[in-house]
Structure formats: structure tokens, C-alpha cells
Amino acid sequence: MEIQIDIDDKVPLFTQVMEQIKQAVSSGDLAAGSPLPAIRQLASDLGINNKTVAKAYRLLERDNVIQTKGYRGTFIHPDAIENCTTDLNIWVTTELTKSITAFRHANVTDSEIRIAFADVMNTNETKGN
Amino acid sequence: MEIQIDIDDKVPLFTQVMEQIKQAVSSGDLAAGSPLPAIRQLASDLGINNKTVAKAYRLLERDNVIQTKGYRGTFIHPDAIENCTTDLNIWVTTELTKSITAFRHANVTDSEIRIAFADVMNTNETKGN
DNA sequence: TAATGTACCCATACATCATAGGGTACATTA
DNA sequence: TAATGTACCCTATGATGTATGGGTACATTA
After folding, report:
1. Which residues, numbered 4 to 63 in chain A, qualify as contacts with chain B under a Cβ-Cβ cut-off of 8 Å?
2. Can you give the distance from the CA of residue B40 to the C1' of nucleotide D28 in angstroms?
3. CB-proximal positions of chain C, under 7 Å
4. pLDDT digits (tens, 9 = 90+) for B70-114
5. Do the chains contact at A108 and B124, CB–CB below 8 Å?
6. B26 sits within 7 Å of strand C by its CB
7. Is B3 helix (H, G, I), strand (E, B) or coil?
8. Which of A59, A113, A126 sits opposite B92 (nearest CB)?
9. Cβ-Cβ contacts under 8 Å, A115 against chain B
């Protein structure tokens, strides 16, 4: 398990970590059940912050690509192969595109769309992230 | 027809202009067909920029609250009373709320939603505004 | 000539947010 | 005791978008 990080890349660090783990799962380098490095360990190896690796792990767990087992560590999810190809963001983008296209067709200003979006995001707050 | 502008209000100036004209229509102070001040005139009276008043007029015309007749000036739309109560933004907000609620329920991060939103807004560009 | 709405260029001040980091602390369990 | 994931505090930087302004110009028509 080796991860290469490019600090100068425009791609966010946590995204680079996510993509490389997913890619390792897809290529078979990481089989279901395989242990992953501890958060602090991987962050130290890559020379980046704990929180950055933790963020990548958190997102990967949400996507059911990895599993965290508390003090025992983190492992590849049993269904990782299927789940690391499905992209939640594609669905989000598709849905938003449908709505925004309709708004623009009704001559709603981009500014107005952005204002309304910001309103919705801020009034119904969510805690983390 | 008098419009009061509060520079220190957080509400944008063009919004204040829009709201007061709509309110004057609703209260009957401005009847259908009544002429509105010229853009440069009103801007001068209020001590604000031409573009700010022009923006308010542009949006009001889109909402069919006013009508511009080229060199002849701007007038209250025949159906202004009905149209100044219907708010396009309510529809936009409702639609976005539905989508965003679904995203959050699927554990999509607010950051991810914002990124996807910005992508959609920027890839399919529109010209003005 | 003068006034109308409209369009384009430029710029600035301000707010919001994503990313990333530094630090500390917690409960759990070998 | 040591390591696990996790949660919270605070900070800084860069990107982006809004609102507003200044200026110039256009075709149209009284």
C-alpha cells in the first residue's frame, strides 16, 4: 500500500488520498478486509495533517469503501469494489443540473439562484463538515 | 411616487427599489400604466448608481411588474397587481430545498453540495447578471 | 439635440467558503 | 500504558461571488 501525494497539485489532498485508495481497491491491490494504515500513521508518512487523512477516511467510510472498527483500526469494506465505482457526486450534479436548467429557462438570474441556494444551505443548518 | 433608500440597510439597494415599487403597486399608489421615473433620474434622486436602478427595473420587467417602452420610458404593467405578489424566488427556494434535503439525507457533505452547485453554475455559463 | 433603455469595459469592498494545519482531549480496548 | 477513531477549539490562505460604482457608447425617437 503506497500512496503518492503531490502538494502542488490543484486536487485537494484529501481527494488524492481517497482516489488512490479507491484505485488500489479497484486494481485489487487492496482486497476486502485488508487493514489500512492508522490515521496518524498515514498522515505522518505523507507529511500531511491528521485531519486531512481523517477527512478522507470519513468520506470513504460514508461511501462504504472502508470500515472503521474503533480502536482496532480501519479496513477495506466487504463490498468495496462495487461501492468505489459509484459516485455520489454524479447524482448530486445531475439533480442540481435539472433544477438550475429549469430556473434559467424561467429567466431566473444566476445571482438569484445563488442567493436562494445560500439561503437554503444556511437556514437548515447541519453540524459538521 | 417616493422611494426611500437606506444605504446602511443590509438589504441590497436594487432590492429596496424593487420592493418599494412592488409595494406601491400593491397599495394602489401606482396604477397600471402609470409612468415611472427614468433610470438616470431616479438614480440621481436617490444618489445611487444608474446601474443599480437599471438592475431593479430589469428584474421588475422580467416579473411583468413594469414595462419598458424604449425611448418613451417605463410604465407599470397592466397585470402588475397580480404579478407583484407572485414570487419567482419562492419556487426556486422550494425546488432547491427538496434537492438539498435529499442530498443531506444521503450523507452528502455540505461542502460537496456547494462544490457540485458551483460546478453546475459555472460549466453551463449564462451571459449577463 | 436631448432623452430613453440598454450594453459593454473597468474596478473595489465585502462576505462566504474550502482547504489545510496546530493543538488538545475523549472513550474504548488490547 | 499505548493505540484506535473521533471531536472540539482556533488560525490562515486562497478562491469566488455580490453589490456597487465610474465611464463610455449605442439606436431610437420626439
Report:
1. 59, 62
2. 17
3. 3-8, 16-24, 27-30
4. 899 999 999 999 998 877 888 999 999 999 999 999 999 999 999
5. no
6. no
7. coil
8. A113
9. 89
DSSP states of chain A: ------TTSSS-HHHHHHHHHHHHHHHTSS-TT-EE--HHHHHHHHT--HHHHHHHHHHHHHTTSEEE-GGG-EEE-TTHHHHTT--HHHHHHHHHHHHHHHHHHTT--HHHHHHHHHHHHHHS--S--
> pLDDT digits over A20-60, tens only?
999 999 999 999 999 999 999 999 999 999 999 999 999 99
A35-36 and A74-76: which strand pairing? Answer: antiparallel
Residue written as grid cell 474503533: A70
| Domains observed in chain A | 13-83 (1.10.10.10), 88-123 (no CATH)
